[in-house]
Design brief:
six-stranded mixed sheet, 15 helices, GI Alpha 1, domain 2-like, Rossmann fold, alpha/beta, single chain, 13% strand
Length: 354
């Protein structure tokens, strides 16, 4: 009888310990959830959002394995072919002819070459060599005087300079190759990593999802928004003959003044400062913004565009601007120290209200 009572008490104590452990686990989960934060990465197409997400993987998720790097080969090969075709078409558009006879002869062959999605495809090293030879022809500097008058990929210089390495049969892309690769993305891309005591969730929203009304309800309790805008888009025409900068400004307006993001901090990335610097020498900012009067001064031009964004902030949210080149990991590493402080500060403010 006594043994039965003892066993009952032992069972009750065991159940009590199990219940207490379950409560501790549940409490820990809730505490971990409170430490987590959502950060949206927004911006128009070609603004550098995808590059920022790749940088997060390099900086906070141990980078890319060789197996992962290999999956980028078809895209990089296609990018190189696109650059080659753009240059040959540019030469024809401006009635320019290569100086070297072998470069004259290779133009048709280069235009007819395509990169296949076939798993057995390897880039023809002879084509890669011809592409490099064409790029080093003395006519190319003349063509580059018109570089912003035809469709040439931002990373064209990089891909041509590395074309012979990219054309090797045993080619393994580098992380910089991956950062330079361009592919139109759609939908939502996620990245998650732990920074100190904080679990960060980054969401890159692209393509049709870019209309806020289509996704805003899915992202409640957003801590911060990283908004990307390419400085070099000031003359880039998009739909309805509107320049890319006007499109970015309209999107920023809809985000920064949205009811759903009251109390959210905005981290504004003005990207492609390197391209902006080159473009200002050839295409005046005044062409798209007649009220701008400071000429080709890069600092003043960037400052004017920043002002154009900041004056839209009627909701008076905290906006933290950064001017950078998203393909430079050192730039992102430095800037993201400040970004983390901003996110943590905003997360603490939100937690205090809960």
């Amino acid at each position: 009888m006594g043994n039965c009572r003892s066993r009952v008490w032992q069972d009750r104590e065991e159940k009590g310990r199990l219940h207490e452990r379950e409560m501790q686990i549940e409490k820990g989960v809730k505490k971990s959830y409170k430490r987590g934060c959502k950060v949206l990465v927004l911006g128009s197409s070609n603004s550098g959002k995808s590059t920022i997400m790749k940088q997060m993987k390099i900086l906070h998720q141990n980078g890319y394995s060789d197996e992962e790097l290999m999956t980028f080969r078809p895209l990089i090969w296609k990018n190189l072919v696109e650059c080659v075709h753009a240059v040959v078409e540019g030469l024809e558009k401006f009635d320019l002819v290569p100086i070297q006879p072998h470069n004259k002869a290779s133009r048709r062959r280069l235009m007819e070459y395509t990169a296949s999605d076939d798993g057995d495809f390897y880039f023809d090293h002879a084509i890669a060599r011809e592409a490099h030879d064409l790029w080093t022809d003395d006519i190319i500097p003349v063509l580059m005087e018109h570089s912003f008058e035809f469709d040439l990929m931002d990373s064209a210089f990089y891909f041509f300079e590395n074309s012979q390495r990219i054309g090797q049969k045993d080619y393994l892309p580098s992380e910089e190759d991956v950062l330079r690769a361009r592919e139109r993305s759609t939908g939502i891309t996620q990245a998650q990593f732990i920074e100190g005591q904080l679990l960060m969730h980054l969401y890159d929203i692209s393509g049709p999802w870019l209309e806020p009304k289509q996704w805003v309800h899915s992202f409640e309790s957003v801590t911060s928004i990283i908004f990307c805008a390419a400085l070099s888009d000031y003359d880039q025409l998009v739909i309805l003959n509107e320049n890319g900068m006007a499109e970015s400004l309209a999107l920023f307006d809809s985000i920064v003044n949205s009811y759903w993001f009251l109390g959210t901090s905005i981290i504004l990335f003005l990207t492609k400062i390197d391209i902006f610097q080159r473009k200002l020498l050839k295409i005046p900012l005044e062409k798209s913004f007649p009220e701008y009067t400071r000429g080709s001064d890069v600092r003043m031009g960037a400052k004017y565009i920043l002002w154009s964004f900041m004056k839209l902030n009627r909701a008076r949210l905290s906006v933290y601007p950064h001017v950078l080149d998203a393909t430079r990991t050192s730039d992102i590493r430095l800037v993201f120290v400040t970004v983390k402080e901003t996110v943590l500060q905003n997360q603490s403010s939100v937690s205090d209200l809960l």
